[in-house]
Amino acid sequence: MRIGIIGLDQSGKTTLFQALTHASAIDESAGRGKQGANLSIVKVPDTRLDRLHELFSTAKKVQATIEYVDIGGLSKGSTQRQGFQEQFLANVRSVDAVVCVLRKFEEDLVPHPEGSIDVSRDLTIIEEEFLLSDLAILENRISKLEKDVKKLKDEGIKRELAALQKCSQALEAETPLRALEYSEEEARLLRGFQFLTNKPILIVLNVGEDEISQESQLATEYASLASGANRVVLSLSAKLESEIAQLPDDEREIFQEELGIKEPALNKMIRHSYDLLGLIPFFTAGEKEVRAWTIRKQTRAQNAAGEIHSDLERGFIRAEVVQFEQLSELTSFAKCKEKGVLRLEGKDYIVQDGDVITFRFNV
Ligand SMILES: Nc1nc2c(ncn2[C@@H]2O[C@H](COP(=O)(O)OP(=O)(O)OP(=O)(O)O)[C@@H](O)[C@H]2O)c(=O)[nH]1
Ligand SMILES: [Mg+2]
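A: This is the predicted complex of the input protein with magnesium ion.
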């Protein structure tokens, strides 16, 4: 699962990306991968896993991860330019969700490409570019299908055409595709196009350091930016986050205390992006390892087992499940069993956020 960081030029994308890389990237993989230095595998912070690690103190802690890519800048009209089209859009199309950085910080030394600070305008510019780009793809495909449908009288083509027309009508009314509802068939037909306006979007207001204490006011003020499906808005200072991330652990805590913050805003952002992707963690815990595994919401126990190893999926017998809160309170599997809160679940059980699971299997 990969998230692309986008935004207008000089909005703070790379600063945010560096904060992510310093804060929680897996060392050996940071900066490697297809996109060169632009890809970072980032650990998802989860206090529940920390608690499990306390309970199983001999164990190694393995966090869930997601990947972030610093995709680069976008400016007004840029998706219409040749060359840029291919690179930037191919990069955005290949991600599962986007973090859109909007510049809110004032800084005379850093010119804003539009000449002033206005986050709503900047978001509109970006959405507009995405919209135009999706429309261009739709129009191409629709005109081809319209010819085919006359020649071939094929039901499949008719249905694809209908789905694409539904999308193009929405875009012409300036409605991003993520705001529409799709049947399973439509969703399947559209998947391959990887439409930009269909991607979940996390809007990050990159605020000045003097504004970080106003997080809740900002959230209210800019709530409208997050209207519609699969859109979330939050504020942070990319610059401050990257400074915090570069501090050694002990100094970091002191620094945060001085600023009156419990947890870096970056952690919240990572958790939000994980959630936006429709992902949840389940845990495994033992003397060797406590670990968070990533699955999509609504995953069956048998498929969840497959995340760990294909043998577990193939030879699945049952899942022994306890809610994190109960294990945390009772402190051991044995006590959970005693109290009757350790449940036996079959292959069709839908795994819940925070389930601690031991799989029984036989191959
Ligand atoms: N004062 C202030 N400056 C910031 C903040 N975030 C980023 N900057 C500065 O803004 C400039 C641009 O930041 P980058 O992170 O390089 O922005 P970018 O979006 O990656 O820029 P491009 O890749 O060129 O589009 C740098 O000089 C940063 O130091 C902030 O929160 N406050
Ligand atoms: Mg950059």
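The chain has three domains: 2-116+200-276, 129-197, 299-361. The domain at 129-197 is CATH 1.10.150.300 (DNA polymerase; domain 1).
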